[in-house]
Amino acid sequence: MRNWWSSRKGRHSSENHYSRWEQDYILLNFSQIGLFYEYLEMVIQFGFITLFVASFPLAPLLALFNNIVEIRVDAWKFTTQFRRPVASKARNIGAWQEILNAVAILSVVTNAFIMAFTSDMIPRMVYLYAYSKDASMSGYINNSLSVYNISQIHPDNMPEDYLHDNSTFTCRYRDYRYPPGHERQYTHTMQFWHILAAKMAFIITMEHVVFVVKFFVAWLIPDVPSDVKARIKRERYLIQEYLRKYDVESVKLQLSASFITEPQSDTSLTPGEYEMVSECS
Predict the structure, then answer these.
(1) Residue 209: its pLDDT value, please?
(2) Global confidence as pTM
(3) For helices 36-51 and 59-80, angle between their N-to-C axes, nearest 10 degrees
(4) Domain Anoctamin transmembrane, which positions (predicted)?
């Protein structure tokens, strides 16, 4: 809107009266941290996608559609709404690379915890291989529910339906605790600790597997392609050859200059030497 308001006077003027550089001058200035917010936006998006992809697997696809549109919007913005930026050399994206690596490593941990503690996969496997009598999932629901004695609830917290209907004495809730009347009632059973140990083992195993795959792929796909490395080596070789030839030529010029000046110095005699030569003759 600011660009439009600044350029309104030249909208109906010919370029002879309102030159190109004047039209570019009224555009927004591309500051030194102009790309900071662009990188920040991408890093935040990358963090949300990787850290919580197990909770919403459709997020990467939506991010892809968003980036396709944003590429065109940023292209229009940089070519029509900003002044031409001053180019500067950069070896890489700087600290953003380390931030992305840290987020990628942290995302493995968060997704492993999400998969371990929010799904029924591990409790089902523990029940199937350790507690099922016939190696099937029959009885899993009953096994995963604990019992609580309703009469032990404080009267102020008692449900209203229970005050009118006293036929219900217990309720079931999802947990692994000893039932009322047990010497360790309402404490966690051994199955709870078995499931917790299985979850931690799953997290450690998943982290190591994903890290091995990540580092293998990073090793398999180099940061710099092989043809680019070959071109860089060739450029270095040509530069060295040029410098070597330059040094050889400079040495030749110095030697030729010395050969030209040395005979003159031998034939030219000082007045004292001339008198000695004339006396000897």
Answers:
(1) 92
(2) 0.64
(3) 170
(4) 11-235
